[in-house]
């Protein structure tokens, strides 16, 4: 049995703005073509009458060749009734390993995103230090930034 993780989907109020946010902050790259999906097969797949989906896939940083993508779509008709909190049941957050958590957090804020909790440093086994923070993109989706280093012997 073949199993392969393919993508994570974000439904956005404005897919173009959200896509641009992930391109600017994380260096994600659009994978053509842009999607403009509608018709009987989309209605059957989604269970929605007259469904119309637009958006694109983004290549995530750190992969070459065959890779999972971030799929950012908007529907012609959407429901906005879910609050995005760190402890909600269901999808929680995207995580990116970065060289400089503080710098990327600042870029997120400059592009219209925000910060959830405090930036912390945590000690892990084997002299490993993690720098971690939760942030939000421009539509409130939660992003974890993480950086890992080994403590130098003193």
Automatic annotation (TrEMBL):
SUPFAM superfamilies: Glyoxalase/Bleomycin resistance protein/Dihydroxybiphenyl dioxygenase
Domain VOC: from-to ranges: 4-148
One Pfam family hit: Glyoxalase
Descriptive protein name: Glyoxalase-like domain protein
Organism: Oxobacter pfennigii
